[in-house]
Amino acid sequence: MDNALKYDSIRGLVKAAEERQTKISRVVLADQATQMETSEEELFTQMRDSFAVMREAIAFGQNKDQRSMSGLTGGEGYRMYEYAVNGGGLCGSFLSKAIARALAVAGCNASMGKIVAAPTAGSCGILPGCLVSLYEDKGMDEKDVVMSMFTAGAFGMVIAKNASIAGAQGGCQAECGSAAAMAAAAMVELSGGTPAQCADACAIAIANQLGLVCDPVAGLVEIPCIKRNAGGLVIAFSSADMALAGVEPKIPADECIDAMREVGNALPASLRETAGGGLAATPTAKKLKEKVFGLGE
Question: Is 123:160 a contact under the CB 8 Å cutoff?
Answer without folding.
Answer: no
